[in-house]
Amino acid sequence: MPGPDPAPATSTTHAPARAWLRPALLLVGGALLTLLMVLADQLIAALAVGAFSLFMAYWTSPLRSGPHTPLASAQERARGADGTAPTIVLWAPGDPASARLQAAIRAPREDLIWVNVFKDPAAQQLLGRYGGERMLPLALQGEDAARIDNVSELFAFQDRTRQGGAPGGAAGAGPTTPDPGADPSGRSEQRGEDESDPPRA
Questions:
Q1: Which of 58, 69, 91, 131 is least enclosed by beta carbons within 10 angstroms?
Q2: How confident is the model over 34-80, as pLDDT tens digits?
Q3: Strand 144-147 vs strand 138-141: parallel, antiparallel, or unpaired?
Q4: What SS3 state is found at 115?
Q5: DSSP result, 55-92
Q6: How far apart are the first and last CA of the chain?
């Protein structure tokens, strides 16, 4: 009897072509500026600009790996949490908002699990159900989800969902269907029925 197929989390996905546009522009622009400085005999400045352009092209490209936990493992960890379940954050290399959030949260945190959607087909499929890449970075807590722009929004989302009694972390986020009438800007949040009340101080 043939064995089971490999788990989807072990396969890889490919970054869309548009994810390479920003790093390509940075690389070309940096190369042109470096060339102009070399022609002007500004060698030290040319080296600095060239190095900075290479770094920024890498930082904004899908080549940057960053923190990653397969979605299935993240959901299992959230289900098995003894206390408050950690928040799963879907992110992608080359996404400016994802880069800003990770730059602000540099140290590992027990209450956050990072999932790179370019490395996990299941995570990419889940992200598509919430509106696709325009929703990055997407925080998942129980059956609640929200696009996060900064650390303050992330912590506010955690407080709101946990006070509302969001069950079991992101394990319950999989079957949740996004609201088709959500704000096109991607900044709307899915809320539970009991979240209309303001959070307690």
A1: 58
A2: 999 999 999 999 999 999 998 888 877 777 778 889 999 999 988 87
A3: antiparallel
A4: strand
A5: HHHHHTSTT-------HHHHHHHHHT-SSSPPEEEEE-
A6: 59
36: amino acid identity, one letter = L
| AA identity, residue 110 | E
Within 8 A by CB and 6+ apart from 173, the residues are 75, 88, 126, 140, 141, 142, 143, 144, 145
Angle at 191 between CA 69 and CA 86, to 5 degrees: 30
| Residue 119, pLDDT above cutoff 70 | yes
Backbone angles phi, psi at 60, to 5 degrees: -95, 10
* Cα 101 to Cα 148: distance, rounded to the nearest angstrom: 8
pTM for the structure as a whole: 0.62
